[in-house]
Protein backbone atom coordinates (compact mmCIF):
# COMPACT_ATOMS: atom_id res chain seq x y z
CA UNK A 1 0.00 0.00 0.00
CA UNK A 2 0.96 3.66 -0.32
CA UNK A 3 0.21 6.42 2.16
CA UNK A 4 1.15 9.85 3.41
CA UNK A 5 3.16 9.22 6.58
CA UNK A 6 3.59 11.68 9.46
CA UNK A 7 6.87 10.89 11.21
CA UNK A 8 7.35 14.33 12.77
CA UNK A 9 4.20 16.38 13.53
CA UNK A 10 5.46 19.83 12.59
CA UNK A 11 3.10 20.49 9.68
CA UNK A 12 2.21 19.61 6.11
CA UNK A 13 5.79 19.94 4.86
CA UNK A 14 6.86 16.96 6.99
CA UNK A 15 4.42 14.50 5.38
CA UNK A 16 6.09 11.87 3.19
CA UNK A 17 4.48 9.69 0.52
CA UNK A 18 5.71 6.15 1.22
CA UNK A 19 5.18 2.55 0.26
CA UNK A 20 4.21 0.55 3.34
CA UNK A 21 3.26 -3.09 4.03
CA UNK A 22 -0.43 -3.68 3.44
CA UNK A 23 -1.91 -4.35 6.91
CA UNK A 24 -3.95 -7.39 7.91
CA UNK A 25 -7.09 -6.80 9.98
CA UNK A 26 -6.89 -7.88 13.61
CA UNK A 27 -9.84 -9.38 15.46
CA UNK A 28 -12.81 -7.05 15.22
CA UNK A 29 -11.29 -5.05 12.36
CA UNK A 30 -11.87 -4.72 8.64
CA UNK A 31 -9.40 -3.66 5.95
CA UNK A 32 -10.78 -1.00 3.64
CA UNK A 33 -9.49 -0.24 0.16
CA UNK A 34 -9.89 3.52 0.26
CA UNK A 35 -11.59 5.14 -2.72
CA UNK A 36 -11.94 8.69 -1.37
CA UNK A 37 -10.96 10.69 1.71
CA UNK A 38 -11.95 14.19 2.80
CA UNK A 39 -10.02 16.96 4.47
CA UNK A 40 -11.22 18.10 7.91
CA UNK A 41 -9.81 20.87 10.09
CA UNK A 42 -8.60 18.34 12.72
CA UNK A 43 -6.41 16.74 10.03
CA UNK A 44 -4.32 19.90 9.96
CA UNK A 45 -4.20 20.19 13.76
CA UNK A 46 -3.12 16.54 14.18
CA UNK A 47 -0.10 16.86 11.88
CA UNK A 48 0.84 20.09 13.72
CA UNK A 49 0.61 18.32 17.10
CA UNK A 50 -2.12 20.77 18.14
CA UNK A 51 -5.08 18.39 18.44
CA UNK A 52 -6.35 16.75 21.63
CA UNK A 53 -5.76 13.33 20.08
CA UNK A 54 -2.04 12.69 19.57
CA UNK A 55 -1.47 9.41 17.69
CA UNK A 56 1.75 7.49 18.31
CA UNK A 57 4.40 8.16 15.66
CA UNK A 58 4.60 7.43 12.84
CA UNK A 59 0.99 7.53 11.66
CA UNK A 60 -1.07 7.99 8.51
CA UNK A 61 -3.35 11.04 8.92
CA UNK A 62 -6.82 11.30 7.45
CA UNK A 63 -9.83 11.16 9.74
CA UNK A 64 -12.59 10.41 7.26
CA UNK A 65 -12.82 8.18 4.20
CA UNK A 66 -14.91 5.78 2.16
CA UNK A 67 -14.12 2.62 0.24
CA UNK A 68 -14.66 -1.11 -0.10
CA UNK A 69 -14.12 -3.77 2.54
CA UNK A 70 -11.29 -6.02 1.34
CA UNK A 71 -10.83 -8.35 4.32
CA UNK A 72 -12.46 -8.94 7.70
CA UNK A 73 -10.85 -9.96 10.97
CA UNK A 74 -11.96 -12.64 13.38
CA UNK A 75 -15.32 -12.06 15.02
CA UNK A 76 -16.59 -9.41 12.60
CA UNK A 77 -20.29 -9.72 11.87
CA UNK A 78 -22.47 -7.76 9.50
CA UNK A 79 -19.67 -6.84 7.09
CA UNK A 80 -18.01 -8.82 4.33
CA UNK A 81 -15.53 -8.34 1.51
CA UNK A 82 -17.03 -6.18 -1.22
CA UNK A 83 -19.22 -4.05 1.05
CA UNK A 84 -19.08 -0.29 0.49
CA UNK A 85 -18.48 1.64 3.72
CA UNK A 86 -17.62 5.06 5.09
CA UNK A 87 -15.69 5.69 8.29
CA UNK A 88 -14.64 8.45 10.64
CA UNK A 89 -11.66 6.68 12.15
CA UNK A 90 -9.38 9.46 13.37
CA UNK A 91 -6.37 8.42 11.29
CA UNK A 92 -5.50 6.25 8.29
CA UNK A 93 -7.49 7.92 5.54
CA UNK A 94 -4.69 9.41 3.44
CA UNK A 95 -3.52 6.12 2.04
CA UNK A 96 -4.63 3.32 -0.25
CA UNK A 97 -5.70 0.98 2.59
CA UNK A 98 -6.59 1.16 6.28
CA UNK A 99 -7.53 -1.30 8.99
CA UNK A 100 -10.22 0.04 11.30
CA UNK A 101 -12.57 -1.33 13.98
CA UNK A 102 -15.61 -2.78 12.26
CA UNK A 103 -17.82 -0.76 14.60
CA UNK A 104 -16.58 2.44 12.93
CA UNK A 105 -17.60 1.33 9.43
CA UNK A 106 -20.92 2.75 8.22
CA UNK A 107 -22.42 0.52 5.50
CA UNK A 108 -23.35 2.56 2.45
CA UNK A 109 -26.67 2.06 0.67
CA UNK A 110 -26.63 1.51 -3.11
CA UNK A 111 -26.02 4.70 -5.08
CA UNK A 112 -24.04 6.50 -2.38
CA UNK A 113 -21.06 7.99 -4.26
CA UNK A 114 -17.68 7.43 -2.57
CA UNK A 115 -16.73 11.11 -2.96
CA UNK A 116 -19.91 12.13 -1.14
CA UNK A 117 -19.55 9.40 1.48
CA UNK A 118 -16.01 10.52 2.30
CA UNK A 119 -17.34 14.00 3.09
CA UNK A 120 -20.44 12.89 4.94
CA UNK A 121 -20.11 11.45 8.44
CA UNK A 122 -18.26 14.16 10.38
CA UNK A 123 -20.07 17.23 9.07
CA UNK A 124 -23.60 15.83 8.84
CA UNK A 125 -23.43 13.90 12.12
CA UNK A 126 -22.07 16.97 13.91
CA UNK A 127 -24.75 19.24 12.46
CA UNK A 128 -27.63 16.79 13.03
CA UNK A 129 -26.53 16.15 16.63
CA UNK A 130 -26.15 19.89 17.22
CA UNK A 131 -29.36 21.17 15.68
CA UNK A 132 -31.86 18.39 16.30
CA UNK A 133 -30.55 16.70 19.45
CA UNK A 134 -28.79 19.44 21.43
CA UNK A 135 -30.83 22.46 20.26
CA UNK A 136 -34.15 20.64 19.68
CA UNK A 137 -34.68 22.85 16.63
CA UNK A 138 -38.37 23.29 15.76
CA UNK A 139 -40.04 24.04 12.40
CA UNK A 140 -40.40 27.77 11.88
CA UNK A 141 -37.50 28.75 14.15
CA UNK A 142 -34.64 30.87 12.86
CA UNK A 143 -31.07 29.54 12.82
CA UNK A 144 -27.94 31.64 12.43
CA UNK A 145 -25.06 29.57 11.02
CA UNK A 146 -21.59 31.09 11.42
CA UNK A 147 -18.86 29.90 9.05
CA UNK A 148 -21.73 28.76 6.87
CA UNK A 149 -19.66 28.06 3.74
CA UNK A 150 -17.44 25.47 5.43
CA UNK A 151 -17.99 21.73 5.69
CA UNK A 152 -20.10 21.70 8.86
CA UNK A 153 -21.73 24.99 7.86
CA UNK A 154 -23.02 23.74 4.51
CA UNK A 155 -24.26 20.56 6.21
CA UNK A 156 -25.99 22.65 8.88
CA UNK A 157 -27.79 24.72 6.24
CA UNK A 158 -29.21 21.60 4.62
CA UNK A 159 -30.21 19.92 7.90
CA UNK A 160 -31.85 23.07 9.28
CA UNK A 161 -33.87 23.45 6.08
CA UNK A 162 -34.86 19.77 6.19
CA UNK A 163 -36.13 20.43 9.73
CA UNK A 164 -38.31 23.30 8.51
CA UNK A 165 -36.27 26.19 9.93
CA UNK A 166 -35.43 29.59 8.47
CA UNK A 167 -31.68 29.81 7.86
CA UNK A 168 -29.47 32.89 8.04
CA UNK A 169 -26.01 31.95 6.75
CA UNK A 170 -23.04 34.10 7.76
CA UNK A 171 -19.79 33.85 5.80
CA UNK A 172 -16.69 35.89 5.05
CA UNK A 173 -17.23 36.87 1.39
CA UNK A 174 -19.97 37.69 -1.08
CA UNK A 175 -19.01 34.63 -3.13
CA UNK A 176 -19.43 32.33 -0.13
CA UNK A 177 -22.73 33.96 0.73
CA UNK A 178 -24.00 33.38 -2.80
CA UNK A 179 -23.09 29.69 -2.58
CA UNK A 180 -24.93 29.43 0.74
CA UNK A 181 -28.08 30.80 -0.88
CA UNK A 182 -27.71 28.28 -3.71
CA UNK A 183 -27.82 25.39 -1.22
CA UNK A 184 -30.85 26.66 0.65
CA UNK A 185 -30.07 29.59 2.96
CA UNK A 186 -32.96 32.05 3.19
CA UNK A 187 -30.70 35.02 3.89
CA UNK A 188 -26.98 35.71 4.20
CA UNK A 189 -24.64 38.07 6.03
CA UNK A 190 -21.10 38.88 4.93
CA UNK A 191 -19.55 39.46 8.34
CA UNK A 192 -16.27 40.64 6.82
CA UNK A 193 -17.94 43.73 5.35
CA UNK A 194 -21.21 44.11 7.28
CA UNK A 195 -22.33 44.60 10.88
CA UNK A 196 -23.46 41.22 12.17
CA UNK A 197 -25.68 42.55 14.96
CA UNK A 198 -27.40 45.20 12.86
CA UNK A 199 -28.09 42.82 9.99
CA UNK A 200 -29.44 40.17 12.35
CA UNK A 201 -31.75 42.75 13.89
CA UNK A 202 -33.08 43.63 10.44
CA UNK A 203 -33.45 40.05 9.22
CA UNK A 204 -35.25 38.88 12.39
CA UNK A 205 -37.31 42.08 12.92
CA UNK A 206 -35.54 42.66 16.21
CA UNK A 207 -36.24 39.22 17.67
CA UNK A 208 -32.87 37.58 17.05
CA UNK A 209 -32.12 33.99 16.00
CA UNK A 210 -33.56 31.15 18.08
CA UNK A 211 -30.50 28.96 17.51
CA UNK A 212 -26.91 30.01 16.79
CA UNK A 213 -24.61 27.37 15.29
CA UNK A 214 -21.00 28.41 15.93
CA UNK A 215 -18.06 26.36 14.62
CA UNK A 216 -15.91 29.52 14.37
CA UNK A 217 -15.50 31.08 17.82
CA UNK A 218 -13.18 34.06 18.03
CA UNK A 219 -14.47 37.60 17.80
CA UNK A 220 -17.79 36.63 16.18
CA UNK A 221 -19.07 34.84 19.26
CA UNK A 222 -19.96 37.77 21.51
CA UNK A 223 -21.85 39.92 18.96
CA UNK A 224 -23.73 36.81 17.84
CA UNK A 225 -24.63 35.86 21.41
CA UNK A 226 -25.76 39.42 22.15
CA UNK A 227 -28.21 39.06 19.25
CA UNK A 228 -29.83 35.79 20.38
CA UNK A 229 -33.59 35.53 20.88
CA UNK A 230 -35.34 34.96 24.19
CA UNK A 231 -34.89 31.27 25.16
CA UNK A 232 -32.28 30.98 22.39
CA UNK A 233 -29.73 28.18 22.23
CA UNK A 234 -26.09 28.95 21.42
CA UNK A 235 -24.33 25.87 20.03
CA UNK A 236 -20.60 25.72 20.77
CA UNK A 237 -19.37 23.53 17.90
CA UNK A 238 -15.72 24.51 17.44
CA UNK A 239 -13.11 27.24 17.16
CA UNK A 240 -11.99 27.39 13.54
CA UNK A 241 -10.82 30.98 13.98
CA UNK A 242 -8.32 29.72 16.55
CA UNK A 243 -9.39 31.79 19.54
CA UNK A 244 -11.64 30.40 22.27
CA UNK A 245 -13.98 33.26 23.19
CA UNK A 246 -14.87 34.30 26.74
CA UNK A 247 -18.58 35.13 26.74
CA UNK A 248 -20.17 37.37 29.41
CA UNK A 249 -22.50 34.96 31.22
CA UNK A 250 -24.89 37.76 32.17
CA UNK A 251 -26.07 37.59 28.55
CA UNK A 252 -27.39 34.07 29.15
CA UNK A 253 -29.28 35.35 32.20
CA UNK A 254 -30.77 38.39 30.46
CA UNK A 255 -31.96 36.43 27.42
CA UNK A 256 -32.99 33.24 29.24
CA UNK A 257 -30.58 31.65 26.79
CA UNK A 258 -28.64 28.39 26.89
CA UNK A 259 -24.99 27.76 26.03
CA UNK A 260 -24.93 24.24 24.64
CA UNK A 261 -21.79 22.20 24.02
CA UNK A 262 -21.65 20.00 20.92
CA UNK A 263 -19.19 17.08 20.88
CA UNK A 264 -20.44 14.58 18.34
CA UNK A 265 -17.45 12.24 18.77
CA UNK A 266 -18.14 11.78 22.47
CA UNK A 267 -21.87 11.40 21.79
CA UNK A 268 -21.08 8.61 19.31
CA UNK A 269 -18.86 6.88 21.88
CA UNK A 270 -21.28 7.17 24.81
CA UNK A 271 -24.54 6.66 22.91
CA UNK A 272 -23.69 4.36 19.99
CA UNK A 273 -27.25 3.20 19.38
CA UNK A 274 -28.63 6.72 19.06
CA UNK A 275 -25.67 7.64 16.85
CA UNK A 276 -26.36 4.67 14.56
CA UNK A 277 -30.02 5.68 14.32
CA UNK A 278 -28.98 9.22 13.43
CA UNK A 279 -26.58 8.05 10.71
CA UNK A 280 -29.32 5.84 9.30
CA UNK A 281 -31.67 8.81 9.06
CA UNK A 282 -28.97 10.91 7.40
CA UNK A 283 -28.28 8.17 4.84
CA UNK A 284 -32.02 8.05 4.13
CA UNK A 285 -32.13 11.82 3.66
CA UNK A 286 -29.20 11.55 1.24
CA UNK A 287 -31.09 8.94 -0.77
CA UNK A 288 -34.13 11.23 -0.83
CA UNK A 289 -32.05 14.15 -2.09
CA UNK A 290 -32.65 16.28 1.03
CA UNK A 291 -28.93 16.55 1.77
CA UNK A 292 -25.80 16.27 -0.34
CA UNK A 293 -22.21 17.17 0.57
CA UNK A 294 -20.90 20.34 -1.05
CA UNK A 295 -17.57 19.46 -2.65
CA UNK A 296 -15.17 22.33 -3.20
CA UNK A 297 -12.59 20.32 -5.17
CA UNK A 298 -11.90 16.65 -5.90
CA UNK A 299 -8.15 16.01 -6.22
CA UNK A 300 -5.92 12.94 -6.51
CA UNK A 301 -4.56 11.78 -3.14
CA UNK A 302 -1.06 12.55 -4.40
CA UNK A 303 -2.03 16.26 -4.25
CA UNK A 304 -2.62 16.28 -0.49
CA UNK A 305 -0.21 19.20 0.09
CA UNK A 306 -2.14 21.28 -2.45
CA UNK A 307 -5.38 20.33 -0.68
CA UNK A 308 -3.99 21.56 2.64
CA UNK A 309 -2.91 24.78 0.94
CA UNK A 310 -6.44 25.23 -0.36
CA UNK A 311 -7.79 24.78 3.17
CA UNK A 312 -5.27 27.25 4.58
CA UNK A 313 -6.38 29.87 2.06
CA UNK A 314 -9.85 29.86 3.69
CA UNK A 315 -11.42 29.81 0.23
CA UNK A 316 -12.95 26.35 0.59
CA UNK A 317 -16.71 26.11 0.19
CA UNK A 318 -17.84 22.76 1.58
CA UNK A 319 -15.10 20.15 1.63
CA UNK A 320 -12.03 19.09 -0.35
CA UNK A 321 -12.01 15.41 -1.29
CA UNK A 322 -9.04 13.29 -2.38
CA UNK A 323 -9.40 10.14 -4.46
CA UNK A 324 -7.37 7.01 -5.07
CA UNK A 325 -7.13 5.67 -8.62
From TrEMBL:
The keyword Oxidoreductase applies. The keyword Oxidoreductase applies. It is an enzyme of class 1 (oxidoreductase). Its EC number is 1.-.-.-. It comes from the Bacteria. Keywords: Oxidoreductase. Pfam families: ADH_N, ADH_zinc_N. Signal peptide: none annotated. GO terms for molecular function: oxidoreductase activity. Residues 11-322 form the Enoyl reductase (ER) domain. PANTHER family: QUINONE OXIDOREDUCTASE-LIKE PROTEIN 2, SHORT-CHAIN DEHYDROGENASE/REDUCTASE. This is NADPH:quinone oxidoreductase family protein. It comes from Roseateles violae.
Amino acid sequence: MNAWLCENPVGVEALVWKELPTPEPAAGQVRVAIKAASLNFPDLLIIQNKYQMKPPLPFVPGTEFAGVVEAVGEGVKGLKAGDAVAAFAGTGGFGSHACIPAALAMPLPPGFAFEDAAAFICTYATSHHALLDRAALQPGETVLILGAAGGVGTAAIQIAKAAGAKVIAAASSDEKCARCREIGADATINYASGNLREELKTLTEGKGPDVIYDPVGGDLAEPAFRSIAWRGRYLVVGFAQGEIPALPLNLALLKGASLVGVFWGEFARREPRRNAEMLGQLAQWYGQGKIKPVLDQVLPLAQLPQAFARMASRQVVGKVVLTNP
